[in-house]
Amino acid sequence: MTNNIFLHGLKLNTKIGVPDWERAVSQQLIIDVDIQLKGNQIFTEDDISKTIDYSLIESEIKLIALKHEYRLLEDFGEDIISRLKEKFHFEKIILKISKKKILPDTDFVGIILER
Question: Any idea where the domains of the chain sit in the sequence?
Answer without folding.
Answer: 4-41+49-114
